[in-house]
Amino acid sequence: MTDLPLLSRSALDRAEELRADEDALRAGWAGAAVLRVTRRGQVRLDGTDLLLEPAAELGAEPVPGAVFLGRRDGRHLWAVRVAALTGELGDLRLIGHRLGDSSAGLLTTAVAVLNWHDSAGFSALDGAPTTPTLSGWSRHSTSTGHEEFPRTDPAVICLVHDGADRVLLARGPHWPERRFSVLAGFVEAGEALETCVIREIAEEVGITVRDVRYLGSQPWPFPRSVMIGFSAVGDPEAPLVFADGEIVEAHWFGRDEVRAALAAGDWASDSDARLLVPGSVSIARGMLEAWAKA
């Protein structure tokens, strides 16, 4: 990786020390700002940035379900889930590349924590309803008081190359033709990251890789993952076998072809080339850009 992945940028002061300080949060609420987020992850935009609205419009003190995100220029920032929004809208996938570091960190965190709340209404331990606590950074079981925290699921994403000028890219069963990316998969319980890379690639395309090397990481709150990037070397002469149904097509592409695809844009490009690659908000593109420049 030559550049920090876009969603890994964050100049947000999370002010973790304030999450349990109810007096400080109430005092800061009057001048606080709120980011409203729909279940589809859409937010209001103010030109090229997020539209933050006065928190006091929601009530005199922090409202139930609001998540404290931190501070910016001394101002408290919160996020709330809403059913719908009007005006100019965007979501993280579409506008992430347009945001500055602070706003990128703000929206990524808001989407990740609100997505967790959507699925954490009942305790995984005892099945009882849970209620938000710690200004949105935990939930307590109403039966036992057991505390649960926002969940993040680790996933590996690996650029497989031949050690020279070819890279292996694949297409999932629900992707339109010509849209390819690097291989990825979730880490299993009790599994090291490097072991997961080897297992997932073997399961998805049937080849054994070596020289697994860490590249970087990126939060991916869809709904609540962190993508951990690696590179690995594979044999382009080994047969590709799509055993687990997660891949329907894969090919070894040359460096020049990848460079042309990057120059053409992303999956939304109107290029008629046989290869289209992910957009800049994905760590996959940063991995491909770094490899293409080598």
UniProtKB/TrEMBL annotation:
Signal peptide: none annotated. Belongs to the Nudix hydrolase family. NudC subfamily. PROSITE patterns: NUDIX, NUDIX_BOX. Keywords: Hydrolase, Magnesium, Metal-binding, NAD. Its EC number is 3.6.1.22. This is NAD(+) diphosphatase. It comes from Rhodococcus kronopolitis. Residues 150-275 form the Nudix hydrolase domain. The keyword Metal-binding applies. GO terms for molecular function: hydrolase activity. The keyword NADP does not apply. Pfam families: NUDIX, NUDIX-like. It catalyses: a 5'-end NAD(+)-phospho-ribonucleoside in mRNA + H2O = a 5'-end phospho-adenosine-phospho-ribonucleoside in mRNA + beta-nicotinamide D-ribonucleotide + 2 H(+). Its cofactor is Zn(2+); Mg(2+). Coiled coil: none annotated. InterPro entries: NAD-cap_RNA_hydrolase_NudC (IPR050241), NADH_PPase-like_N (IPR015375), NudC-like_C (IPR049734), NUDIX_hydrolase-like_dom_sf (IPR015797), NUDIX_hydrolase_CS (IPR020084), NUDIX_hydrolase_dom (IPR000086). The lineage of its organism: Bacteria, Bacillati, Actinomycetota, Actinomycetes, Mycobacteriales.
